[in-house]
Amino acid sequence: MSEGKIKIKLVRSPICTPEKHKKIVRSLGLKKINQVVERPDSPSFRGMVAKVPHLLAVVE
Known about the structure:
By secondary structure, the chain is an alpha+beta fold.
């Protein structure tokens, strides 16, 4: 993992999840399964990942 960055991967579909979970996934910039995005490693992004750990994975 690079300095100050976190890679987030969408591993499961948010179709049958509550609307809040869908909004979190979309706000991270994830649209497709297995898509990986790189975001700043800040407490706000870490908190978003912690809200939906069953949908996301942190890629090393």
